[in-house]
Design goal:
The chain is α/β, with parallel strands linked by helices. The protein has two domains: about 180 residues, Glycogen Phosphorylase B (Rossmann fold, 3-Layer(aba) Sandwich); about 180 residues, 3-Layer(aba) Sandwich (Rossmann fold), CATH 3.40.50.2000. The protein contains 15 helices and twelve strands. The strands form two sheets. A six-stranded parallel sheet has the order 2-1-3-4-5-6, with helices on both faces. Helix 10 packs parallel to helix 11 and helix 10 crosses helix 15. The protein starts with 13 loop residues before the first strand and ends in a 20-residue tail after the last helix. The C terminus is likely disordered.
Length: about 400
């Protein structure tokens, strides 16, 4: 890569072309926004091209536009095509290639940064044609890719990794997976420092204020206990487990309310199930929120119910905000939560596990009512067949 970048002059900003499947409010887009906002504009210039249309509902798109890093091209007609339609895929692929071609003329990127699955194939093509440095931010674990119907992505990595100069891995388990399919360790760069501690400290100093305002804006009682979940409404996020636990908890804590920040295809299912359980007044699906930290500041406990992932960005934020955390053991040996002692549960929901799941909520809520608990002091929850203790 050093040889390929010899033509970059010291007084000329490095131009990075980012290719991403779509702008959303979640993990990969959040990391993209951090890359753009944290790099000095006189040193690095960014431009973003998406595979899917910008539907105008994500605040990250507006922020990127304000920085001059994103100019969504008109794709109104494409929104009418079915997402699984082969015409949909072909038209969008050609459209992305066309806009990439135009960017090569006016933007003239030094580095091509591909972020998600469909964009990887475009990046590989550009590498072959242009021989520019291509780097890739691995978006998820292989198990998540398989669950999303993209089992071909790990196979693509294994076969064509020689064309990718660098793999950025946000999760330590991702590095292990990349090594297991033959990618050299010298190509894998783990990155840390995923939290903006300055922003977090500012919010923590206003914790009492947010404790009041979030309850008011969400129309909750002033003494409401808040269980917070953050993540798109998708089965892999495990929101249904939290929902099913609520009736038993409400018998002991009638002022408990579940707030969910995120949007997705499971919304109707969750709303319907809440109605059938008779707990709709205690379930609040608030959709995507541009600024999530105030909700952490107002929460009583954080629910980490995803069933595949390692520790994700939302969980890191809960830790930094000092929240006790309840969640599942996803089988990732390197997870930070197993080391610092948060509540962890196995995925297999045996009768004992269900009792542990409910008991953990109860213990954490009872403790929170008495004293502010630092996350590192929350006790261990052992796997199935072992006792849990808080």
């Amino acid at each position: 890569m050093e040889k390929e970048n010899e033509s970059i002059k010291d007084d000329v900003p490095v131009r990075v072309l980012h290719l991403i499947d779509r702008i959303s409010g979640y993990g990969t887009t959040r990391l993209l926004w951090d890359i753009v906002r944290l790099t000095p504009p006189d040193k690095v210039e960014h431009f973003v091209i998406t595979f899917s249309p910008d539907q105008g509902k994500w605040f990250h798109a507006e922020r990127l536009r304000e920085r001059g890093a994103y100019r969504p091209f008109p794709k109104t007609g494409l929104l009418k095509l079915g997402r699984r339609n082969w015409v949909w895929f072909l038209v969008r692929y050609i459209s992305m290639l066309w806009h990439v071609f135009k960017s090569l003329i006016w933007f003239r990127p030094h580095i091509i940064h591909v972020h998600t699955s469909n964009s990887v194939t475009v990046g590989l093509l550009l590498k072959v044609v242009l021989w520019r440095p291509v780097v890739h931010l691995v978006p998820s674990l292989f198990s998540q890719m398989v669950d999303a119907g993209k089992a071909w992505v790990p196979r693509l990595y294994a076969r064509f990794h020689v064309l990718i100069d660098c793999f950025f891995a946000a999760a330590s388990r991702s590095r292990d997976e990349l090594l297991s399919i033959g990618i050299p360790g010298s190509k894998i760069v783990p990155f840390y420092g995923l939290l903006d501690l300055q922003e977090i400290n500012e919010v923590r100093h206003k914790q009492q204020q947010y404790h009041k305002t979030i309850r008011e804006t969400s129309r909750l009682p002033s003494d409401a206990l808040i269980a917070l979940s953050v993540g798109r409404l998708d089965p892999v996020k495990g929101h249904i487990f939290a929902l099913e636990a609520l009736p038993a908890l409400l018998r002991q804590f009638p002022n408990l309310h579940w707030l969910v920040l995120g949007e997705g295809k499971q919304r109707a299912e969750l709303e319907d199930r809440a109605r059938k359980l008779g707990i709709s007044p205690h379930v609040h699906l608030l959709g995507h929120q541009g600024h999530t930290l105030p909700f952490y500041a107002a929460a009583t406990v954080y629910l980490r119910t995803m069933i595949f992932e390692e520790t994700n960005l939302s969980t890191y934020q809960a830790m930094a905000m000092g929240l006790p955390i309840v969640g599942f053991d996803t089988g990732c040996e390197t997870e930070l939560l197993n080391k610092v002692g948060h509540g962890i549960f196995p995925i297999k929901m045996s009768k004992l596990c269900r009792q542990q799941w409910l008991r953990s909520w109860q213990c954490l809520i009872e403790v929170e009512k008495l004293v502010v608990v630092a996350w590192s002091l929350v006790g261990l929850i052992w796997t199935s067949g072992r006792q849990s203790r808080i």
